[in-house]
Amino acid sequence: MYVAVTGATGKIGRWIVHELIERGHRVRAMVRPTRDGHWGNTSPAVEEMKRCGAEIFPADFADHESLKQFVTGVEVIVHNGYHHINEEEHPAEWTRLNILSSVIMYEAAWKAGVQQIIFISSGAAYGRGPVYERQRFGVTLPIDERTMTAPRGMYAAYKSCIENATVAFKTVHGMKASTSIRPLGDGVGELMGFRIYDDVGAFSGLVKKLLSGEKVILKFPRRLVCVDGRDIGIGCDLLIRKGCVEKAEIADWYLLGNAPITPGQFVETLQDVFGRLPVEVKETANDFVCSDADIVKIGYQSRGSQVTLREHFVELANRLGVRK
User: Fold this and answer.
1) Which of 147, 205, 244, 286 has the fewest CB atoms in 10 Å of its CB?
2) Is 215 helix (H, G, I), strand (E, B) or coil?
C-alpha cells in the first residue's frame, strides 16, 4: 500500500517508516522543515529515511494546505505526528495545531479518497480510568480496549479526542478499517525503548550513570511492559493488511504491548549487555494490571518485553562504544 506517515522523524515515527518499507509498503514521510528551509535537528532521521527508500514530504501542522497536499494520492495514513508547544501556556494555539489540524487532515484525506487511517494514540488516554474502576468495583481490573478512559492533561486529551475523530470518520464517511493503536504506557507500568538515533533518550542517562560507577536505585512496578517504535510499526503493517481483507473485523482501537517482565528481568537484561552495574531495584505497586492476553490483540505476536529491551540496550551499547 501507499502509506503516508506523520511524525516520521520522531522516536516512534522513524521506526514505523522503516518497518513499513521493510514489509513492502511505499511510504511518504512527513517532515517539518525549519524556518530557514533545512531540517534542523531532524537531519539524521531524514537521511536515514532517505537511505531506506522513503519519500520525504515537507509539511507542517501549522500549514493546512501542506497537510492537504500530504494526504493526496495515498491509500493509508498513519497519524503519529504531534506539534510540541507548551499546552499549559498556549492552550488555544496548541489545540489549533494538534486537534484542529488533525481533523483538517482527516477531512482532506476523506475527500482525496484515502481508505484507512491508523492513529497512534497512547496509554495516556486511560488516565485515571482504571483507578476509578478500582474505586467503583473494589478490585483492580485488567485493562483492555473496553477499559474506561479519563485522560489527565492536554496531551492525553488530544489522544482521546483524535481517537474519537478517527472512529467518526470511519463511521460517517465509510473509511474502511480506520482505527487507533494505544501503545501500552504512561502509568501502565511501562518502559518505552525508542532506540533513537543518538545517545540521548530512554535509559541512556541511566546507563551513563551506572557506567561511571554511580549507584542508582530504580523504583519500578511489579510488572513492566517495554514497547518501541519497531513493535508499533509491526502493528501498523498488520492492521493495514487486515484492513485490505477483513474490514468487519477491525476494531475501533487496539491496545498494543509486549508480554510483561519483572524488575528483576530488567536488571538481568541490563547486566547481560553491560556487565555488573551498581543498580538496585525497589518494587512499587501497580495501579494498572494487564495480562499477556490483554495486550496481544492485532494478530501481533508478542516478542516479549525482555527481547525488545535487550535490542534497545545492545543498540545503546553500540552507540556508546561500550559492551560487556
Assistant:
1) 205
2) coil
